[in-house]
Structure formats: structure tokens, C-alpha cells
Inverse folding.
């Protein structure tokens, strides 16, 4: 036979645990609010130092239609987009820098960049050794309300420039 | 991680299923919990902490409420727990919206927290609330096993986009896990592949056409192109969301869980009431059980009934997103349902069925315009193009998009009707005892086509992700 609940007191061991958990939540929220403010810089200010770290001979500037075709992203949905695409079918070096309008867009942009990277890896898997190596080192990074996707000889330098520019 | 991503299909899912079936029965839920946390952490690792808080807090609260006799203290605790859950959801989903609106109407400059939305927070908050409310009402026993409770909240098949599985629906299966039979697993695979095909082959394809039409400058979008755009979106969101729900249901079946059906051919509805019995059923059920009926439903007179309908649909709209267009969309349906209930309902049923369908579909399309537009103003501009012949009626863009999409559109019309699936099953019966083999070949073809599409395309959004 089930025992009927009898407790009527407001404070019990469960309540103490609940209060402790709420304190933990409060700390979590404070830390969350203190992290990653959105950058005030324009997309042009952000892209210039990054482009200095890249070999633009193997890339060409892409238009909004290219961003749409390759990543499925509408340029007008964002504060700014900078896209440099591979200059030939056999090149893989590219740069996508997106300044988000709000952080809700981050997951979708990261997902689009990841999908592009996966597709490129599939395309060159098995025969494009150099290209595959570059793709393996590709960086997808987010900071300051921006998303960076870079495939390059030295993507780390581009990523560092990105963080310095924020 | 999306179900329709190569990472999920070829790495996460096979490994998870392998592990799930290798371990003995008692450890399966632990495996499910562990893999679900990895699945969730894939996109936003930091928000796993928020989910763990939600699990622990609601687990303890459930035990607390079930240990107490009915009294004032218990009621206060229940209210506090519900408020905490709503505050968390509100903070992450609606704080920015309220701050923006307050800053716009008051002479203040409150800083916008500008936080990213934890994926699936609307879904898992509603699930934990269903648990707390049912425990408080005495409809279910509090779950004593924290692994089972955590597995319920985090269960990756339905974690990020539903269906919203109420605790009472899964309690039995959580307490007494069943052995998954081979036919049940096969049924799950069939559901999953059907969903994958809907999402990848249909929704992704037509989604690109919708976005191209929506992106057209207003003066280049003819009246017919605007209608075509709305139709494309209607198909995109249906096959996108119902495809994802089917995949979730299939994954659940593969692991021994029965999730409620979330869609029942909504575009065959003959009225708006009928439409909402067929669209996102788990959300409508949630609001009916936990808001509409507790408020009194239709039992306390017309005025209170109207209030209850409006409130439920205001909340339904707001649940979908922190923006005025979603609120407007919700109120639009609230208004339509009130009119249907008290004014046009009796007239509508006397019309020939084809007119009932047509009126319903037009009203639904208008609803989608509010849903896909980034603001109410943009929605009205789009609707103006649809309904007022002030500019081009047909136009070359319409002809181009129709001629290049007529076949996918036709397939989508067929796939929106139960008759199509019945034909598939009846055709497979022609193979006699090998009908199941014929069906399996059909599903494998869908799988192969979906993978071919996924490998070649980088356009693979998921609309309900943001809710």
C-alpha cells in the first residue's frame, strides 16, 4: 500500500537543495552575462587585418549570391559578411567572416560553415592530398558576435588576427 | 547537431545505437543520457550546464512536491518551481525582446543581454513543466531514479525540436524499459528514413525556392510569385518540421520509446480547428492540458471561453519566438478559431469539401506570411502583393520558379496527402510475401537519395531549431 505524503513544512532538505541550485544558477547567469560582448567594429575594420594573413592569389572576393549558393546564408540577414572564395575548382582556401545581428544566428552560421567544410572534405577526399590537409586545419571560430571560417596555409594567424581585431 | 547531417548519420547515430544495444538493460538509460548530453553539447557546450540545472532542480522539486501533503506550503512551492522554469525560459528567450521594446517606448537605455538561445530550451522546459504539473496534480508519481528523469529531459531524439513528450506519456517506458524487438526497430528505421527524406529531399529543395522569392525586391515580386513563395514556405516548414518529428519518433522507436505523433496531414484540414488538430499536435495538446482546460476551457460562458482561446493562442505565438510577428501570428489563429467557433463554423461545414479545404489553405498561407516575415510590417507588405493587384500579376520570375519547381511541388502535394502513402503500401503488397522487402528497398532508395543530396549540398537549415 502506498504511503500517503504527510509533510506540510515549507523548509525541508529538498528546499535547501533547491535554494543551493538556484544560487548556482544565479552564479552561472552572472558569468554568462559577463562574457563575450559584441564587437562595435564594422565588418570592413574586422576583415582588413585578417586578409593580411591570407594568400589572396588563391582566393577571390565572393558576392552575396556566392554566400547564398555556398552557405545558404542571406547576406542581408547579418550586420556584415566578408567572403573570399577559392579562385579555382582545385583551390580550397577561403574565408567567411560574418558579423551577426544577434547571437541567435550563431548556431545557424556555424552549422552552415561546418556543412561547407564537410562538403569540401568529401569533395577532395582520396585525391587532393594538399587540399585535404588544408581542410583538416580549417578553423571555425566565434567571438564578439562574429563567426569566422577560414581555410588557409596558416589559419591560426588569421584566427589570431580576428581576435586582435575584435 | 542536426539529424540530417552526415556527422549524425554516419558517426553519432551508429555509435550510439551500438553502445545502446551492447550494454545490459539497466545501463541503457545511462547510455542514452550520456549520448544525449554529447549530442546537446555539440553546438553549445556551455548550455549543458543550464540543462543539468533544470534536471536537478525539477527532479528535487518533484520529490519535494510528492512528499508533501496538500497544503498551502505545497501550493507555494509549486508556484515557485513553475515560475523559476518560466523565468529561465523568459530570460534566455524573451529578455532581449522586452529590453528592446522597453528601450523603444521609455526614455531608458537598458543594456540588451544579447544571449544566444539555448537550443531546444522551449521544448525541454515544457517537458519538465509537464512533469512538475502532473506530479503536483497527482497524475504521475515523482521519478525517484535521477538517471531515468535526466534521460527523459535530455533524450536526444526529441531534445531540440520535439515532439513535446509529456512525462506521463513516457513514465511507463522509463520505469519498465522494454526490450526492442526487431520489427519495432525496423518500424523505427522506416519512420526515421521517411522523416529524413521529407527533410532533405523535399524541405531543403523547396526552401531554396522560397528564399529566392522572399529575397526578391518588392517591385520585382509579382502577385503570383508572392503566392508561390508562400506555398513553397508552407511546404518547406511542413516537411522540415514533420520530417524532423518523424525522425524523432523513429529514433524513439529504435530505442524502445513511443513518442506521440506530431503531424497528421495538416494540409488536408477542412477548417482551422481541424488544422490545429493536425499540426504540431504535441504543442497544442500541451497548451490544452496545462493552460486551456485549467482556465476553464469552454465551460464558464462565452466571454471566458473567448478569453481562454485568445490567451492560449497569444502564448502559442509567443512560444514560437520573441517577436511581434509571432505574437500576431498566434492572435491571428486565436481570432480565426473564435470566428470559426461562434460565427462561420456552421456555414463552413455546409460548403462542398473542396471549398472547405481551399478556404482553410488560404487562411493557413496568410498565417505563414506572418510566420516567415521578419516583422509585422514586412508581412503586411507581402500580403499586399498577394492580395492587391497593384503591380505585376504573373511576371517572369513566377514563370521561372514555377517551371523549374513544378515537379517537386507536385510531389509535395502528393506527399501531403495520406493517399500517397497508402498507394506506396498497397503497391508493396503486390510483392506478396516479399512486401516488406519491397518497402525496405523503397526506404533504402530514399536514404541513398538523401545522402547524395547531403554530400553535394551545403544548404541544410532546420527551421524549428530556433524555437
Amino acid at each position: 500500500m502506498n504511503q500517503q505524503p504527510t509533510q506540510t513544512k515549507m523548509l525541508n532538505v529538498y528546499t535547501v537543495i533547491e535554494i543551493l541550485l538556484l544560487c548556482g544558477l544565479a552564479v552561472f547567469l552572472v558569468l554568462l552575462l559577463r562574457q563575450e560582448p559584441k564587437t562595435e567594429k564594422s565588418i570592413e575594420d574586422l576583415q582588413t587585418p585578417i586578409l593580411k594573413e591570407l594568400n589572396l592569389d588563391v582566393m577571390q572576393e565572393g558576392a552575396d549570391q556566392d554566400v547564398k549558393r555556398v552557405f545558404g546564408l542571406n547576406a542581408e540577414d547579418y550586420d556584415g559578411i566578408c567572403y573570399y572564395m577559392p579562385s579555382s575548382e582545385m583551390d580550397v582556401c577561403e574565408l567567411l567572416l560574418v558579423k551577426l545581428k544577434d547571437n541567435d544566428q550563431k548556431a545557424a552560421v556555424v552549422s552552415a560553415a561546418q556543412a561547407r567544410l564537410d562538403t569540401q572534405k568529401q569533395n577532395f577526399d582520396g585525391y587532393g592530398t594538399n587540399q585535404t590537409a588544408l581542410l583538416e586545419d580549417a578553423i571555425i571560430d566565434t567571438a564578439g558576435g562574429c563567426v569566422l571560417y577560414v581555410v588557409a596555409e596558416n589559419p591560426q594567424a588569421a584566427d589570431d588576427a580576428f581576435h586582435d581585431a575584435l | 547537431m542536426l539529424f540530417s547531417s552526415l556527422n549524425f548519420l554516419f558517426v553519432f547515430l551508429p555509435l550510439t545505437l551500438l553502445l545502446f544495444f551492447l550494454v545490459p538493460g539497466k545501463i541503457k538509460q545511462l547510455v542514452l543520457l550520456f549520448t544525449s548530453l554529447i549530442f546537446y553539447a555539440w553546438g553549445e557546450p556551455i548550455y549543458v550546464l543550464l540543462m543539468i540545472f533544470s534536471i536537478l532542480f525539477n527532479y528535487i522539486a518533484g520529490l519535494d512536491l510528492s512528499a508533501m501533503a496538500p497544503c498551502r506550503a505545497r501550493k507555494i512551492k509549486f508556484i515557485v518551481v513553475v515560475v523559476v522554469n518560466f523565468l529561465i525560459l523568459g530570460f534566455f528567450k524573451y529578455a532581449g525582446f522586452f529590453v528592446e521594446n522597453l528601450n523603444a517606448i521609455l526614455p531608458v537605455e537598458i543594456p540588451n543581454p544579447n544571449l544566444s538561445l539555448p537550443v531546444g530550451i522551449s521544448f525541454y522546459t515544457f517537458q519538465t513543466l509537464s512533469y512538475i504539473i502532473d506530479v503536483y496534480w497527482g497524475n504521475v508519481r515523482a521519478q525517484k531514479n535521477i538517471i531515468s528523469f535526466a534521460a527523459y529531459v535530455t533524450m536526444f531524439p526529441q531534445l531540440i525540436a520535439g515532439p513535446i513528450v509529456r512525462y506521463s506519456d513516457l513514465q511507463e517506458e522509463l520505469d519498465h524499459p522494454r526490450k526492442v524487438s526487431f520489427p519495432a526497430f525496423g518500424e523505427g528505421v522506416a519512420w526515421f528514413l521517411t522523416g529524413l527524406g521529407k527533410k532533405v529531399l523535399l524541405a531543403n529543395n523547396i526552401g531554396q525556392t522560397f528564399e529566392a522569392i522572399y529575397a526578391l525586391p518588392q517591385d520585382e515580386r509579382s502577385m503570383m510569385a508572392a503566392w508561390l513563395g508562400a506555398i513553397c514556405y508552407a511546404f518547406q516548414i511542413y516537411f522540415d518540421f514533420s520530417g524532423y518529428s518523424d525522425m524523432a519518433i523513429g529514433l524513439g522507436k529504435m530505442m524502445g520509446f513511443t513518442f506521440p505523433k506530431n503531424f497528421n496531414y495538416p494540409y488536408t484540414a477542412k477548417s482551422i480547428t481541424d488544422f490545429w488538430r493536425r499540426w504540431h499536435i504535441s504543442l497544442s495538446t500541451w497548451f490544452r492540458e496545462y493552460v486551456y482546460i485549467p482556465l476553464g476551457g469552454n465551460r464558464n460562458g462565452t466571454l471566458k471561453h473567448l478569453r481562454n482561446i485568445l490567451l492560449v493562442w497569444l502564448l502559442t505565438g509567443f512560444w514560437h519566438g520573441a517577436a511581434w510577428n509571432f505574437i500576431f501570428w498566434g492572435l491571428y489563429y486565436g481570432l480565426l478559431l473564435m470566428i470559426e467557433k461562434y460565427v462561420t463554423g456552421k456555414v463552413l461545414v455546409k460548403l462542398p469539401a473542396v471549398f472547405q479545404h481551399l478556404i482553410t489553405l488560404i487562411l493557413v498561407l496568410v498565417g505563414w506570411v506572418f510566420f516567415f516575415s521578419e516583422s509585422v510590417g514586412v508581412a503586411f507588405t507581402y500580403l499586399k502583393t498577394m492580395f492587391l493587384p497593384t503591380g505585376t500579376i504573373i511576371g517572369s520570375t513566377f514563370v521561372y520558379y514555377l517551371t523549374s519547381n513544378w515537379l517537386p511541388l507536385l510531389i509535395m502535394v502528393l506527399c501531403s496527402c495520406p493517399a500517397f502513402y497508402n498507394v506506396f503500401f498497397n503497391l508493396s503488397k503486390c510483392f506478396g510475401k516479399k512486401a516488406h522487402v519491397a518497402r525496405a528497398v523503397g526506404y533504402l532508395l530514399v536514404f541513398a537519395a538523401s545522402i547524395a543530396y547531403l554530400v553535394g549540398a551545403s544548404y541544410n537549415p532546420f527551421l524549428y531549431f530556433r524555437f
